[in-house]
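lol ok so funny story. i was supposed to be doing the assay writeup but got distracted and ended up predicting the structure for this chain instead. priorities right. anyway since i did it might as well share w the group, maybe its usefull for someone
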Amino acid sequence: MIRIGYKKCEYDFSVYVKSFDDDSFIFMLLYMDDMLIVIKSMSKVNKLKTLLSREFDMKDLGVVKKILGIDIHRDRATMRLWLSWHSFVEKVLERFNMDNTKPVSTPLANHLRLSIV
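and the output, tada:
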């Protein structure tokens, strides 16, 4: 990725960034054998996929709906994006037989206050 003009993010080494002359950016997130490409321009996404497919065996799974257990919801009309761990949390609760427990809005009672001792 470095060879083709991407820079490794200094805060997260699984994130690569490339800037373009039109002030746009492309972000590529790599985790094991998963990849997420984020940019407004589909033509730039397709160019990157073509370039990468020449070097690596790849499978295009289309528009992302989930990555690393995080559900991704988009409303293109309002240009909104939601990230949710809801399904992941449900699986964890099921695993530990807690899926039928009574939900509460906060893990602590409202009258409890935390302080440094």
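The first helix runs from residue 42 to 55. Residues 1-61 form one domain.
back to the writeup now i swear
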